[in-house]
């Protein structure tokens, strides 16, 4: 989506105020840059329900070479802003927020579902289509279907009297969009939004089951991955009932089966519940998609909202709803709202809902050579750096190595699509297990996605009528004859969340996949995001190097360079000059039995290792300049202490909690 030839025209900066907060800059109807706040703060799903941070907005302005004074309109959305509620605990903005006045002349407020709708239509390939939004809750609006208000109009709106009872929450919306406008066709509502209990809202019920199973209502992706291990019928009959209009809905009766609290055992204990709610969600969504197409009299469907990230349901919609062409934007969750509010403000200025055609999702800024040099120099003694060589990467992959890939601008959305990815050969189930255990540090039931050239995809995967899946938003079946050979990407039900790559959107990856296929006969690789459990996907070169050095990843392609960690020196571990890996810290405390000394790793979800005092002191002095031999002389005077310390250090090096800083071999 980012272009090096951005045309002149109105400048609009959009901000999403929610979980998964984000910002997007449009110029002349073209996306210049967009970023989720979490990529900058390193706090997963960072965001507040009000204007509280300039970080994402400033990132976009810097990428465009602009200042706030260059912006024609600032557009934003937050769900909590309804009449009589603003103020005290529901502010417009944090007291330190100074980017713009939310009720000023250059401000635009866009209601939540309208923002989702604008986002997916703006980025879709359609000139006209049905637009469908499904999420847990889209907030409330009074006196109108949706809001698209300049700042002073919005100031008047929030001072209106609130009707009694309070209006219900938007949970589903259907629109018709074309290049010149839009109209609301249908809306579904729910009385409340409470992710601890669920309601008739499809998204809220799914979120409530996620909360029950994982302790977090935003772990719908994990719930989707758990479902294939279960049997819906073992949990019980369908949780859906039909309302008076014949629409399938969740009700509250099924919750009575779960009166005892989850004791936080293994999520596998709840696999049948996951299977049940996933199966029912799919049924309800297919029915609704067909209904939306009928109500709008449109053949094509652009889809958004948090529920649109359910790629299993998306594939059923493609196959069973009767849709001719189906589009889901990569950031269909609340991060995508920043694109939507910017697009809506652009429409307010120009009367055009589309702007410039959107062709891919790499919306982050690119990093310059000097920035790569600075990141590499920080750990230069721990790295070997050479030039990128496609043949060498293919060989490494064939040997079973796991390789990170950092290129250009980062993806905008929750899934890495080849610019902030980790890749590996797809052949063995053991690779799936290795990735979960030693690199991603995540639950064993979570699958990995395949990436494949679009022209070869249908040979290995049942892609259906639409052979392209560039955004990893459809789960398809692996063809039976290939499941044994694609063990690292085939889920227990024979499915895979496939990503297709073409030579236009991602030419280097397409070339690599093609070369890998020429050597192996299978142009398929594992593609997973470059992050560890609980961390956002990396944004910067430094963060990519941290993942390389703090996990068992074998190598990293970073633009035109190949980076490999240094191995311990050949003349024995005692000659090694040690330094702690990124995110590894030492701590000491007093326990029941006296002092306790620990090594912890943030990268590994707080992994803790108890260590003896001599090793603690040794590691505290490990600065990358002093050899282990000299550290042992300082802190391990007894032969038994020395031998024990060497064994521990050897294990920590093998586990990449410690690194060898080979300063003499820097390149």
Q: How would you sum up the major sheet?
A: 8 strands, mixed
The geometry reads as: globular
Number of strands: 29
Strand order of the largest sheet: 14-24-23-15-16-22-17-21
* Mean pLDDT value: 93
| Percentage of residues in strands | 15-25%
Query: Rg from C-alpha positions?
Result: 26 Å
N- to C-terminal separation? 35 Å
Helix fraction by DSSP (H/I, runs of at least 4): 25-40%
Structural class by sheet pairing and helices: alpha+beta
- Are there runs of 5+ residues with pLDDT below 50, and where? 1-6
Q: What's the helix count?
A: 19
Summarize the structure.
The chain has 667 residues and is an alpha+beta fold.
Describe this structure in words.
The two termini are 35 Å apart. 30% of the residues lie in helices and 21% in strands. The strands form seven sheets. Strands 14-24-23-15-16-22-17-21 form an eight-stranded mixed beta sheet, sandwiched between helices. The chain has a six-stranded mixed beta sheet with strand order 3-2-1-4-5-7. The protein has a five-stranded mixed beta sheet with strand order 9-8-6-12-13. Helix 8 packs across helix 9 (311-320). It is α+β, with helices and mostly antiparallel strands and 667 residues long.
